[in-house]
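S2.1 Query sequence (RNA polymerase sigma-70 region 2 domain-containing protein)
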Amino acid sequence: MDLDAFLPAIVARDTRAFGQWMARAEGRMRESLRSFATVVDVESVLQEALLRVWHVAPRFVPDGRPDGLVRLGIRIARNLAISELRRTRARPVEDDELERVMADDEPSEVSSPDPMLRKVIAECHDKLPEKPRQALDARVRSEGRSEDLDLASQLGMRLNTFLQNFGRARRLLAECLRKHGIALPELET
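Output structure tokens follow.
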């Protein structure tokens, strides 16, 4: 299905139509950011890209090829990821390198888990409010196999509410860890 079919309703600021478009486009946009997964917060880049698509959609002019708005969203997402790379001076991982690492049965140079760190993480996790903790736990349990829309539905939340709860959980977890002297810059965005 050409997702540009939703464009007239999106231009008319129909949030339901945008939600349907987003549910179908999000996976492709997320996949386009795969090589950046180890060096940028892909979730925040994706959310920002979706927000920007919503804002620029009324000015978007289709080029006649299918899924023009999706292609624009992918371009926006990749540009945001590149900007984030430049800001942090990180290096993206090539797809073949990522596949090799994921397929590698023997972890390389992985240290044994720090029991004190595990304890602090568990304490901070337990302090999270219920809804943000549920969103975080759902995302962790899914191990990236489920779309956020499905996770939100399983928790009885709207997608936007789920994403807000997940973002709040990350923020609160990072704050708690910082109070314990553990700085994790990738959680601070």
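The domain at 3-88 is CATH 1.10.1740.10 (Rna Polymerase Sigma Factor; Chain: A). The chain has a mean pLDDT of 83.
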